[in-house]
Amino acid sequence: MIRLICAALTAMMLLVSGTGFPQVLAENTGNENIDAAEMVVPEESAGEEAEETSAVFSMDSFEEKGLALFESDVRYPALKEGAADEDLRQKINDLILSDGKITDYVTRVSQLISGGSLTVRWKGAVMGNIFSFAVSAEGAVETLRPTFVWTGGNIDLETGEEATWEDLFTDPDHAKEIIAAYLEEDVLPDLSAHLLNSDLTNLPDLYRMTERGLILLYPIDSLSTLSDRAGDVLIPWAVLKDELKTGEGTIADRMGLQNYIGVNESTLEKLEAAVTNGEIPGIPVKLGDSVFALEEECSLLTDPDVYSGGRLFSLEGGSFRGVFLLTDYLSESWDNSVVDGIRVDVGGVEGLIIGETTMDEWRSALGEPDTTVVFDADQAEAWRTLPGTRDYYNFGEHVLQLHADESGTLISVILTE
Fold it and tell me: What's the pLDDT score for residue 195?
């Protein structure tokens, strides 16, 4: 038994230090993460071709590493061999380990052999050669008393350096004031009933970035959910559009954030690609996903509601703020239910901004819809929405539905089979 434990710990430390053979784990950690079946290390290329390949990054450039020992399980991202020159790759991976406190967690696992457990997971996205990720540690993080801790960071993949708050905003302090006001006016009234405690306007230092917006990662004593996890809150990019540094070569420019703060020439192409793939960027779920598995991983924010087509599910977490998952209502149990639709009522989707984009604007960008339906008050109530007009656009096997209120302003983006 002692030999077995020593061998496991040796392998664990080699894994984190990068000198051992990496264990690639198969479970996905969200919409932004990788399908393990596609975790293929790029073949080495010679000369100029290798340089061009290493300069372009995506989530396919990363693999998931980790180690399961007894009741504990630590998983984290790492840049693959061949995705960049070796010095840069090592610099980036060292920064992931440092920002994510991965070495600390692996060391902690070695102390939990006789009792307690620790579960470490990650979520991440690559946008314009910026890798933004968050690591969640749940369980006996520091003592045997269970808790939940966020770590993570934002890395410039071209340099291996941190991409900072100051790099993102023209006036970093004013950006914080805008966020605090938004939290106070728009987030707290809706979110407070679903929290054990909240101090939203005391902004945390940690955050990650997705296509939908900036997600603040709070310590558990400032924001905790009913499932007793540290909270995270989405701030849509549209809220921050006047605060971003947008000059050529800036972080916002390289991330393409201009594509997420209003309708533009790329809106149709990006929407078509996302809808055809059965997903909405920045939301870690796809059409056909198991509702039961999502509930187990993320926890329900509220009890499911019933609408004319089935049930509406709301999940905890910044990525799911203002998001409803649509499913069937064939039985009281949803063990075998799958996601039939995704509805977004907050923020934006590929330049379509809830509460801002007008029907004329989206029709100008997307063309005339395949179908249009007017919802009166009774129909709107049955579908848990407001009276107005809904446009339907068919993309392959999936349908994009854009619902406007009676003023012609977008209030919901819906993706269905």
Answer: 63
Which among 120, 27, 24, 22 has a CA at the least distance from the CA of 71?
A: 120
Please compute, for residue 76, the number of CA atoms within 13 A of its CA located in the half-sphere on the CB side: 32
Domain 166-260, CATH class in plain words: alpha beta
- What's the whole-number mean pLDDT along residues 385-411? 97
Query: Does 2 have pLDDT greater than 90?
Result: no
131-176: pLDDT as tens digits: 999 999 999 999 999 999 999 999 999 999 999 999 999 999 999 9
Classify the C-alpha dihedral 131-132-137-142 as positive or negative. positive
Residue 198, pLDDT score: 65
CA distances from 361 to 267, 315, 326, 399 (A): 11, 31, 27, 19
Q: Do domains 2-159 and 166-260 have the same CATH topology?
A: no
Q: Is the pLDDT of residue 375 over 50?
A: yes
- Homologous superfamily (CATH) of 2-159 is Fervidobacterium nodosum Rt17-B1 like (3.30.565.40)
More confident residue, 113 or 111: 111
Give me the residues paired with residue 123 across strands.
134
State mean pLDDT over 305-319.
88
Closest CA to 183 of 200, 199, 204, 165: 200
* Mean per-residue pLDDT, 33-59: 46
For residues 239 and 241, give the distance between their C-alpha atoms in angstroms, rounded to a whole number.
6
Which residues have CB under 8 Å from 163's CB, separation 6+?
A: 130, 132, 154, 155, 156, 251
**Which residues are registered as beta bridge partners of 323?**
344
Q: Give dist(CA 60, CA 116) in Å, integer.
A: 34
Contact 78, 96 (CB under 8 A): yes
Write down the pTM of the prediction.
Answer: 0.83
Q: Where are the domains of the chain?
A: 2-159, 166-260, 267-416
